[in-house]
Description:
The protein has about 300 residues and is mainly α. It contains ten helices and no strands.
Amino acid sequence: xxxxxxxxxxxxxxxIVSILVVALLAMLIIYILxxxxxxxxxxxxxxxxxxxxxxxxxxxxxxNSFYMLIVSLSISVPFGIGAGIYLSQYxxxxxxxxxxxxxxxxxxxxxxxxxxxxxxxVFVNMTGWxxxxxxxxxxxxxxxxxxxxxxxxxxxxxxxxxIKEASLGLGATKWQTIWKVILPTAFSQILxxxxxxxxxxxxxxxALLYTAGMSAQHLNFGVANxxxxxxxxxxxxxxxxxxxxxxxxxxxxxxxDATKIASGAxxxxxxxxxxxNIGARILGKKLHEKYTGKNN
Length: 296
């Protein structure tokens, strides 16, 4: 009886703690959305900043955030999943594999400001590129690769336990088994890692301050040549993201209504992360059901 009482007591405590954590998170989101309710204004979302004047919008920063997300994930996802496949299915435990794992753990523990300073030294100064969107994407890739690699490795290892031998027994090659059987089964878990990486891209500021820069140019979508720095799709132009813009507004107050714009930009950032996370989870669930046959 004493054990049952203790079990019920701790169950109640854990429920209370969980409810408090969820309530705190909900209140934080509601507060940010309320203070930044001006974010629902079309002119705010699609207007350009007006330095030194009241008003303006966040269109360049919003575009840069999405573009930074696409470029960074285009680099980090293939390398992260590839590293996870190698460590899970091909690598044999030994000296070099232990070195690789230790390096992954070391990079995962690096503060983003250190990665930013490394990016400033290598991607800005040594390459001669200056502050560029591509340099920022490479810095973010360094931050995200360890987490993506570990998530991919764990997901592939777990998915392979019950189906790898069956696939090989039916005559499939090792690569066919990985590509057509294991990866689809592990996709929902891998997608969770990609979601976490995307959230870090949206919210990262320290690393991008030293690599992508703090200036946002007017976006002229009439320039088709992406090799010129005047094109919005150029990788070698300065690109101030939404998180960096929020930092700039709160630290420099370059416009009279900096607090209002920063609150609106913060609300947009929260909404972007929520939409991306919810959408990706729904997509991951649908794809998982499709490949595992659970929707039949």
